[in-house]
Amino acid sequence: MTDALKRLSDEGVAIWLDDLSRDRLNTGNLAELVQSKHVVGVTTNPTIFQKAIGGGSAAYQGQLKDLAVRKVTTDEAVRMITTSDVRDAADVLRPVYDASNGRDGRVSIEVDPRLAHETEPTVAEAKQLWWLVDRPNVFIKIPATKAGLPAISAVLAKGISVNVTLIFSLERYRAVMDAYLTGLEQAKAAGLDLSQIESVASFFVSRVDTEIDKRLDKIGGEAKQLRSKAAVANARLAYQAYEEVFSSDRWKALEAAGAKAQRPLWASTGVKDPALPDTMYVTELVAPGTVNTMPEATLDATDDHGQVTGDTITTNYADAKAVMDAIAAAGVDYDDVVQVLEDEGVQKFEQSWNELLDTVTASLAGFATEK
Asked: Which domains does the chain have, with CATH numbers?
């Protein structure tokens, strides 16, 4: 074991766990990670819930039976179960939330992924989830699709804290930051306390390498020397954009009114290629005011042998741009890559959600037929 997680925290990186389950809550595992591994937040998504609830854990059977007796719909049952887990996790993390003045101690729950391309239903779903969880330290996750951007502003304008998810491109990230500032401006105009509104922007990492490496392999030759460099470079350039936006006059006016900067959150930080260092998307993305949400395997790997040497982002902007320029010169279409990744991201979450609905439908039907 190293002190890597503590050093990561000391460098200004908030460590969040990219997982949640009722077993993790009931056994005290989440509380233990907060105490022993510097975890100060939790993210969930449809795939995480599908794995937790669809895995047949006994922890959910009592609630499923009660919901079957009440004859609730599958959609209502899923929301009752998932919001219960998020509420309990938020309570575990409440001391962190209080100690950090609301900056950390957050738990994220995502709007129904089937609404990813619909603005008004996304806003309505976000408001409903905020009400259902009923904890100040929750984040409502909204995907950064084109339809999601105005929804982000509208939800923030209601004073609801938002985790913007599925960001892959630098252009879309800038649009997300613009949506954040717009939402804060609307909240300010409505007389809301801006200091109570928080947001993170989840910029996805490993999937960028997976897609671009596949294309580099197809091109072949010298292009293959650029493998596994795009994701870190892309994220570093995102942080450069973050520094630009959150030093602008537009931002300073909001900051003077009590607003807090929307932190970049590095998502999808589990390494997919076994040939790569398993802590790469952690140790290569260290900078103040960031969040890194890790699957437990990545958290453990970082704790065990991570080498945190300080800021690895702001001193590498020129190299990052050179990498992305070289990838473009090799024939990789960046705009196509990020669109494919966004489409796949929405599709994967929708598929997980549908699988979860099928599992819960079967469980409800099973309990309903019991004598």
From this structure: 4-368 (3.20.20.70)
CA pair distance 138, 160, nearest whole angstrom: 9
Eight-state DSSP code of residue 72 = -
Residues with a catalytic annotation lie at 141
Q: How far apart are CA 313 and CA 316, in angstroms?
A: 5
Please tell me the pTM assigned to this model: 0.97
Please say if the pLDDT value at position 215 is more than 70: yes
Residue 51 CB coordination number (10 Å): 16
As a whole number of Å, the CA-based R_g of the chain is: 20
Q: What is the pLDDT of residues 16-30, one digit of tens each?
A: 999 999 999 999 999
> Alpha-carbon distance 221 to 201, whole Å?
36
The bridge status of strand 290-294 relative to strand 13-17 is parallel
Q: Nearest-CA neighbor of 264 among 280, 281, 295, 240?
A: 240
Whether the CB-CB separation of 265 and 176 falls below 8 Å is answered with no
Phi, psi of 263 (to 5 degrees): -75, 140
Mind listing the pLDDT tens digit for each residue in 276-316?
999 999 999 999 999 999 999 999 999 999 999 999 999 99
